[in-house]
Amino acid sequence: MKPSEKWDPELLKIAKLLVKSGGVVWDVGANVGLFSKAAAVRAGPNGRTVSLEADIDAVALLNCTIRLPSKDHAEMTVIPLALGKSPGFVRFAIAKRARAANAIEGHGSTQTGGTLEIRTLPCVTLDSLLDHFPPPDVLQPG
Predict the structure, then answer these.
(1) In sequence order, what are the beta bridge partners of 79?
(2) Of 92, 100, 102, 110, which has the fewest beta carbons less than 10 angstroms from its beta carbon?
(3) What pTM does this model have?
(4) How far apart are CA 115 and CA 92, in angstroms?
(5) Angle at Cα 133 formed by Cα 94 and Cα 131, nearest 5°?
């Protein structure tokens, strides 16, 4: 595996610019967690990251990412769910190509190449997360 500073230089620059020591970061649409991990390292042991990802396949990879060895990084929490205007369930479209183009049904882009499958997922509002997690200093929208 490449050293962390080689993962995505622009992403690391953004984390370095926005995330302060002790900060709380919510990474919405975290994908495999590169920004989440970079933010956790920047936030340090007194910080926290909350990674939200609807694609359960990406969540499996995200969990691998957060287990990568890092010294003195923030607590990292992964939450596999979708965000929406109201709580309930949503239909989540898995793209035929470009997994980063996965989206709640009806909100995808032209980059999907069509839909491979539909998954039903729990959905919460962003505000409802404030009942369980500290408010973010940085909200990274996926």
Answers:
(1) 52
(2) 110
(3) 0.87
(4) 10
(5) 95
From the options 3.20.20.140, 3.40.50.150, 3.40.50.720, 3.40.630.30, give the CATH code of 1-80. 3.40.50.150
Say whether 46 sits in a helix, a strand or coil: coil
Residue 97: per-residue pLDDT: 81
Three-state secondary-structure class, residue 48: strand
pLDDT, tens digit, 9 for 90 and up, residues 4-19? 556 677 888 888 999 9
- Domain boundaries defined on the chain: 1-80, 82-126
Q: How far apart are CA 64 and CA 33, in angstroms?
A: 9
The per-residue pLDDT of the chain, averaged, comes to 89
Helix (H, G, I), strand (E, B) or coil at 83: strand
Is the model's pLDDT at 42 over the cut of 90?
A: yes
Cα–Cα distance, 15 to 26 (Å, whole number)? 12
